[in-house]
Amino acid sequence: MDQDAPERPPTLLHRIAHKLIGAPRDIHEPSLFHKLSLIPLLAWIGLGADGLSSSSYGPEEAFKALGGHTYIAILVGLATALTVFIISYAYSRIIEHFPHGGGGYIVATHTINENVGVVSGCALLVDYMLTITVSLVSCGDALFSFLPLSFQKYKLFFVAFLIVTLVILNLRGVKESVTSLAPIFIIFVVTHVLMIGYGILSHIPQMKPLLIEFQGSAGQDISSIGYLGILAIFLRAFSLGGGTYTGLEAVSNGMQIMREPKVHTGKRTMTYMATSLALTAGGLFFCYFLFRIQPAEGRTLNAILADGVFGGWPLGGLIALITILSEGALLIVGAQAGFIDGPRVMANMAIDSWFPRRFAALSERLSMQNGVLVMGMAALALLVYTHGSVSALIVMYSINVFVTFSLSQFGMVRFFTKNRERDKDWRKHIVVHVIGMILCLTILVITIYEKFREGGWITLFITSLVVGLCYLIRTHYMKVRKGIRQLEEMLSNVPTTEPFNNEPVNPNNMTAILLVSGFNGFGLHTLLSIVRYFPNIYKNFIFVSVAEVDSGSFKGVAEMEALQENARHNLMKYVRVTRQHGFPADYRTDVGTDVVEGATKLVESVVKEFPRSTVFTGKLVFKHENPFQRILHNETAYAIQRHLQWDGIPSVILPIRVNI
Fold first, then answer.
1. Which residues pair with 586 in a beta bridge?
2. Residues near 422 by Cβ (< 8 Å), separated by ≥ 6?
3. Which residue ranges run through the membrane (predicted)?
4. Are 282 and 78 in contact (CB under 8 A)?
5. Do residues 242 and 400 make contact, with C-beta atoms less than 8 angstroms apart?
């Protein structure tokens, strides 16, 4: 190694990135998990805002579907609040039985099968992409409600700016993004409690005339369209307001970021979310009816309601403006759920080989950088496709979320049915999931029937494409895994002709440093290739491995320790095999989120210990390589080689052929 080699200067891109998203985090910091985890209040803000913010567009869509039968809003409001509590309680049960997160994807995979799991996961993933877009478009609608109509042409640019801003915030880390947006959440809660509370209380003296009006309108409809007609209107409005319930699954998906004890924190967060959403959404339906709210071009129903409630107050116009501004701002916070949970769904699916492995990786800020970037780009694409139409987005949004809801509830029904002998209270627990499944399927079927031609087909088409892509990716990974396993079986049977070598490694001898991951045919092939192509040159073999901390292992101190122990165990196998072939061998290991940076530093320290060294690593090669394979298999070997060459350390990449 060239001792005088200059230190690699940070590139302009790295300097800009550190300014925007902050300096790298220390993975070895003892209190890291405690600092990054969320208490129930912060989890309510970060994940519950998605559910609460849906009150800005869900009740509006349902109320508009009632047409002139506005008295039914009272029934829809009560049904909506009840449904929120039922689905929330069902997801609290999911949190108990699947405390490590993953939500609908993990539930469907483990309780039904992996094929249903990938459908649920893809539906959930597309849903989170839509979460970002619909939340931020609704934010634009709310804020532009107070601007002249001539400003509407700038709304799409404003929403695109918000998407980019949230991408940057989430690259900094979940807790930082949630904490910075907390004041917005608090203002929303205070202003909407005031608006809904005063709106209902101010009409208490008029309750008797209102009750008479309700009975009169209901009687008129019974005589003209009958009970079935009223039921049809109710069910249509109830289903088209399905956007109200989106976000209720966010807590069960994001359990990894909860503070210990995770289950207790998750269930408390779920209670906060359900109570706040049920009261807000149900209260808005009551207020729409009480204040005779009618749709108006360029204005949301909540903006009209705020004017009606605060119109007679001193500074009423300002209070109404703050209320709607907080609503628009909360929708920004609600979009956070897409950036928090969307990448986690990708990471869980990447661990199971449905997505490229790089989506399970963590950045130096311990955020799922690749997933955040994909969610941002997808949200921008959906914004352009729908031209910022909330109605079109909500249709797409509602269908996908209720696909996941329905599969999750069906999965839990199967779970309790299979475990009825071990759980004496299984009948009590299964009831809520049966009711939840019926409600979710009802909303899903009616929404698809009503809105299939108005945009419902596109969300089913997009989700089907993602499912198909997942199968292509997994099929490729399975073929590669099979090829490597065959290679491992063949190489593990190579007979040893030398006695077991117990000699210590000698720093003065020529040393081969092998970069390996786990104990597999990949590493064994590299070892035997060195012995074959460089006979009698290398006397020592040092195995180097960086245990990559990804979303699957970054859950707590115990998981990190298990990751390190597993890396040491695998390296000891390499050492034993090498000594069986007559060569002195040892290993060095570390943990980190960036394999390239971690391996480079680790190799540099080994080279100082063994100056006469050459670094070897392997790379999969295919007979007919294509861009698809390059996406699925990263260029880690070349990246490490470039870093080592800068430091003057000789490095060799050995090809490993896989016939697939």
1. 542
2. none
3. 69-91, 154-171, 183-204, 224-248, 269-291, 311-339, 366-388, 394-417, 429-449, 455-473
4. yes
5. no
| CB atoms inside a 10 Å sphere around CB 316 | 15
Residue 66 burial (C-beta neighbours within 10 Å; 0-12, 13-18, 19+): buried
pLDDT of residue 207: 82
The structural domains of the chain, ordered by start, are 38-475 (1.20.1740.10), 494-657 (3.40.50.620)
Residues 154, 160, 164, 167, CA torsion sign: positive
3-state SS assignment for residue 590: strand
Is the bond into 261 cis (omega within 30 degrees of 0)?
yes
Burial of 639 (0-12, 13-18, 19+ CB in 10 A): middle
**Nearest partner of 237 among 74, 51, 452, judged by Cα:** 74
| 507, two tokens | 């720093």
CA–CA gap between residue 371 and residue 132 (Å, rounded): 13
Cβ–Cβ under 8 Å, residues 546 and 601: no
Q: In whole angstroms, give the CA distance from residue 477 to residue 223.
A: 64
- Dihedral sign, Cα of residue 12, residue 17, residue 22, residue 26: negative
CB 138 within 8 A of CB 159: no
Mean local confidence (pLDDT), 396-423: 85
User: 180 Cβ partners below 8 Å, 6+ apart?
Assistant: 169
Tokens coding 227: 């009970």
In contact, 621 and 653? CB cutoff 8 Å: no
Give the pLDDT confidence of 66-75 residue by residue, as tens digits: 988 988 999 9
**Who's near 619: CB < 8 A, 6+ residues apart?**
637, 638, 653, 654, 655, 656
Mean pLDDT of 422-450: 86
- What the block records as the tokens of 560 is 């990190």
Both structure tokens of 45: 């803000």
Name the phi and psi angles at 264, rounded to 5: -60, -45
**Nearest one of 400, 250, 265 to 340, comparing CA atoms:** 250
